Amino acid sequence: MNFQEKLLDSFIAFEQDVDLLNPIHSDRKEALKRFEKQGFPSKKDESWKYTSLKSIIQKDYSLSSKPNKSVELRDVKEFFLNDLDSFKIVFIDGVYSPFLSKTTHDGMDICVLSAALSKGKYDSTIKNYFNRTVPKDESLASLNTSYTKEGAYIYIPKGVCPEDPVQIMHFSTGNQKSIWLQPRNLIIADKNAKVEIIERHQSLKEHAVVTNSLTEIYAEKNSFIDYYKIQNDLDSSTLIDNTFISQERDSNVSVHTFSFGGKLIRNNLNFYHKGENIQSTLKGITILESNQHVDHNTLVNHAQPNCESHQDYKGIFSDRSVGVFNGKIMVDKIAQKTNAFQQNNNILIDNKAKVNSKPQLEIFADDVKCSHGCTIGQLDKEALFYLKTRGIPEKEAKALLTYAFANNILESVKTPNLKRRINSLIASKLGVNLGFDL
Fold first, then answer.
1. What percentage of the chain carries pLDDT values higher than 90?
2. Do 269 and 397 fall within a single domain?
3. Average pLDDT for residues 321-344, to the nearest whole number?
4. 342 lies in a domain?
5. Residue 27 within a domain
6. Least enclosed by CB within 10 Å: which of 6, 54, 93, 427?
7. What is the model's pLDDT at position 118?
8. The total number of structural domains that make up the chain
9. What does the DSSP 8-state code read for residue 98?
C-alpha cells in the first residue's frame, strides 16, 4: 500500500473521531473524492515543475497523535516572541495545548477550530466562510479539507482592533518517527476590524515530519490584516503552506514570509479581490543553505477596478540550495485602474546554488499600471572590495551587503519585537554579529 492509498483508507478511522452530522463533513467527503482523482502533484504539473514531492510521499507517516503533556513552556519558550504581549494558540503534534495557549472569547474569538465546529453559536459563521475560497483543483488543499479537524479559529468582530497580536505555533516533538500533520486555520476580520498574526511551524528534534497546512483568511470591508510567517525549521521537516485570502472593498492585507530553514518548503499564497480600493502586499525573504529547497507560488487575482498589489521577494542561496519563485498577477477585463507590482531578486553565494524564477502577468484590461521582473546574480565585487578596504573582514562585509539587499523587506514589518527577532535570525543564518539592532 502506498501512502496515497493509506490516506484514502485511513479516512474511515478518521470519521470515528469527528461529528458526521456537522455540515462541513460533506465538504470533507467531496474533497477526499477530488484528492483520490487528482493525487499528489508532480513535476508534470506546470506549477510544480521545479519542486518534486516524490521522495517525500514514498515514505510512510503516522496520521494521528495523542496529546503530549510532556512538552513544557521551557521546551518551546525560545520560539515565542516572549517580549511581546500576545494571544497564543499552540499545537503539539497537531493536538491543541491549552496549557501553553492564551485564548479569549471576550469581545472576539481567538480559539481552536474544533471548538468552533462543535458549538452551535458558530454555525452561521462556519457556513458562510469555511472552504468558500479554496480552489477545487488544488489536490493538497483538498487533502487538507478532507482531514480537517483542528487548527486556529480567529474571528474579529466589526470595529474591533485588538492591541495584542496572535501567535499560532505548531510544534512537532519527534515522539513518532514520522508524522503527517494537516492543520486548518480559519481567520476572519469583519468590517473595520484589525488583527496581526504570527505563525510558526517548528520541530523540536530531527524526525520526518510533513505539514500540509491550509489557512483561509477573509478580510471584510475596510479591515486590516498583517500576517507574518516564520519558517526556520530543521532540515528533516517539510512544510506545504496553502493560504487563500479573500478581500472585500477597502481592505488591506499584507503577508510577510521569512523562509530560513527546512528540507522543503512550498508556499502557495493566493489573493482574491472581491471589491474596489483593495491593497494586497506580499513580501518575503529567503535565506537557504545546504540542500534546502523553497518554492514560492503566488497569485493575485485582480477582479475589481481601482486596486493595488505589491510583491517583493528577495532570495539568498548558498551551497546546493534551490529557490523557486512562480508569481502570477491576473487582471480581469473590468479591473481598470489596477496598479500591480511584482519583483523577485536573488543572490547566489555559491556556484552550485540554483534559482528558478517565473514572474507572470495576465492582463485583460487596458487602463492599468503593471510591472514585473526578476534578477539573479552575485554580490557586487566592487562594493565588497570597498568595504574590505575600510577594514571590514570579508565575511562581515558579505553579511552587510547581504543584509542591505534584504533590508527593504524588513522595513515594512510593523512590530518592533518581530523586527528584532527576524534581524537576529538573519544574523544567525549569515553566521555573524551585525553589530546593530532595529
1. 79
2. no
3. 97
4. no
5. yes
6. 54
7. 86
8. 2
9. T
Give the C-alpha separation, 313 to 419, whole Å: 17
Question: Which of 315, 433, 309 has its CA nearest to residue 371?
Answer: 309
Backbone angles phi, psi at 383, to 5 degrees: -65, -40
The partner residues of 363 in beta bridges, in order of sequence, read 331
SS3 category, 153: strand
Structural domain includes residue 84: yes
Stretch (H or E) spanning 88: strand 87-92
The C-alpha atoms of residue 405 and residue 285 are separated, in whole angstroms, by 10
pTM of the prediction? 0.95
Judge whether residue 438 has pLDDT over 50. Answer: no
- The reply to whether 249 and 392 lie within a common domain is no
Q: Considering the domain boundaries, does residue 317 fall inside one?
A: no
Tell me the CA distances in angstroms from 297 to 1, 202, 231, one per residue in order: 31, 22, 15
Same domain (yes/no): 268, 385 = no
Mean pLDDT of the chain: 93
Q: Which residues of 412-435 are buried (b: 16+ CB within 10 A; e: fewer)?
A: ebebebbbebbbebbbebbebeee
Q: Which of 274, 308, 341 represents a domain boundary (last residue)? A: 274
pLDDT digits (tens, 9 = 90+) for 233-272: 999 999 999 999 999 999 999 999 999 999 999 999 999 9
For residues 85-113, average pLDDT:
96
User: How many angstroms separate the CA atoms of 438 and 435, rounded?
Assistant: 11
- Residues 262, 403: one domain? no
Domain of 416 in residue numbering reads as 380-438
Q: Which of 211, 239, 274 is the last residue of a domain?
A: 274
